[in-house]
Design a protein that fits this description.
The complex is a heterodimer. Chain A folds into two domains: about 70 residues, Orthogonal Bundle (Chemotaxis Receptor Methyltransferase Cher, domain 1); about 190 residues, Vaccinia Virus protein VP39 (Rossmann fold, 3-Layer(aba) Sandwich). In chain A, the strands form three sheets. Chain A has a five-stranded parallel beta sheet with strand order 6-2-1-7-8. By secondary structure, chain A is an alpha/beta fold. In chain A, helix 12 links the parallel strand 7 and strand 8. The mean pLDDT of chain A is about 90. Chain B has one domain: Rossmann fold (3-Layer(aba) Sandwich). Chain B contains five helices and five strands. In chain B, helix 2 packs parallel to helix 3. The longest helix of chain B is centred in the N-terminal third of the chain and has 13 residues. The radius of gyration of chain B is 13 Å and the shape is globular. The relative contact order of chain B is 0.17. The chains are: A alpha/beta, B alpha/beta.
Chain lengths: ~280, ~120
């Protein structure tokens, strides 16, 4: 395994911060090594040091973007931390269906390889088939073009399929393709994927009934977290819902949000809005 | 809570035993379906069975059908743990009464997440 010296680590840390506003902590050298060593090999370079040397002398090389994407791609799985999905099924979607007579918009920010938006799409199709007919927009964004290309394919390894996906849903919504599993087009069609960097100006987003922004704020510094939450506030409908990761909170960042307990999960609503 | 592991591969039983013991379960082992039925008769504390499909003698599919035909075991949860990785087999196992299905090879996290899906481990 290539090891990284402090000068090279600081160079990568600055590069990632400039392009994504993600703040790598000082103890993340192992992450840089494990994520970038394969990238160096793919690029035909002998070592991590050689990769960083190339980045330093060619500031516009496409590898800059690939490095940022490799570092900022995060783990995901189907129905990860099941409680927000339970809240969606038991409380939020029934409440929104009662209140809304037009289509619903759900935004999954930092969707990685697509398991989260596809989990929502399967949940809707299983439990709220009328909503599918009435139109539901599930918009899924991520910083990484490479990971979005994977998500659009909807093709998963057996290791990924084994994680968190109930077997009954596997039989209903996936087809086997060689050693992989492809999610059926009826689910794939429900999700629109777009590339977007949370730390930069966002593309035009429709007002959202529900925002899933889980396990991503933790990577940003406080000012960036505040800026992102402020923009979420602008696109969230007054009675909409925001889900963060289970270790994340709006507390001390944005007083406009109040936590709401729904079953075993916590979500956030704007203070003037009605609770379900 | 006790878990019964049914697999003719000693290595596979050992792998699952480590995962389950680390998660706090008591573990019982059997190497085929018939032996597993005898374990169920002997030990009423078994809440979950992880069962391979292909085994000599009574295979996992026949075992699941036998368990689901016996009202005494209707609360026992059954998870197929197998290298059989086609939709038709997953569907057959579920139709026979399996509660979950995991394909070999699997990771430790995948096993634990399936136990959460079954409500056997807390999320």
């Amino acid at each position: 395994m290539d090891t990284i010296n402090s000068s090279d680590f600081n160079y990568i840390r600055d590069l990632v911060r400039r392009h994504s506003a993600i703040a790598l902590e000082a103890d993340k050298a192992y992450l840089v090594e494990t994520r970038l060593a394969p990238l160096a090999r793919q690029a035909g370079l002998a070592s991590l040091q050689e990769l960083i040397g190339l980045l330093r002398i060619q500031p516009t090389h496409p590898l800059h973007r690939q490095v940022v994407e490799a570092i900022t791609t995060h783990e995901t799985s189907f129905f990860r931390d099941i409680h927000p999905f339970d809240a969606l099924k038991n409380t939020i979607l029934p409440a929104l269906l009662t209140r809304r007579h037009s289509s619903l918009t759900i935004w999954c920010a930092a969707c990685s390889s697509g398991q989260e938006p596809f989990s929502i799409a399967m949940l809707v199709r299983e439990h709220f088939p009328a909503l599918v007919a009435r139109q539901i927009r599930i918009i899924a964004t991520d910083l990484s073009g490479a990971i979005l290309a994977r998500a659009r394919e909807g093709l998963y390894s057996q290791i990924e399929i084994n994680r968190g996906l109930p077997a009954a849903l596997l039989t209903r919504y996936f087809d086997k393709q060689g050693l992989h599993w492809r999610i059926k087009s009826e689910i794939r069609r429900m999700v629109e994927f777009q590339q977007s960097n949370l730390a930069e100006p966002w593309p035009l987003m429709p007002p959202a009934d529900l925002v899933f922004m889980r396990n991503v704020l933790i990577y940003f510094d406080v000012d960036t977290k505040k800026a992102i939450l402020s923009r979420v506030r602008n696109i969230l409908k007054p009675d909409g819902y925001l889900f963060l990761g289970s270790s994340e909170t709006t507390l001390n960042l944005d007083t406009a949000f109040q936590p709401i307990s729904l079953g075993k999960s916590t979500c956030y609503q704007l203070r003037q809005s009605k609770t379900p | 809570m006790a878990v019964l592991i049914v697999d003719d591969s000693r290595a596979m039983r050992s792998l699952l035993r480590h995962i389950l013991k680390d998660a706090g379960f008591a573990v019982i082992e059997a190497s085929d379906g018939q032996e597993a039925l005898e374990c169920l008769q002997r030990c009423r504390e078994i809440d979950l069975v992880l069962v391979d499909w292909n085994m000599p003698g009574m295979d996992g599919y026949a075992f699941i059908r036998a368990v689901r035909a016996a009202p005494a075991y209707h609360e026992v949860r059954l998870m197929m743990v197998t290298a059989e990785a086609e939709i038709e087999q997953v569907s057959r196992a579920l139709a026979a009464g399996a509660d979950e299905y995991i394909m070999k090879p699997f990771t430790r996290d995948a096993v634990l997440e399936k136990l959460k899906l079954l409500g056997i481990l807390p999320h």
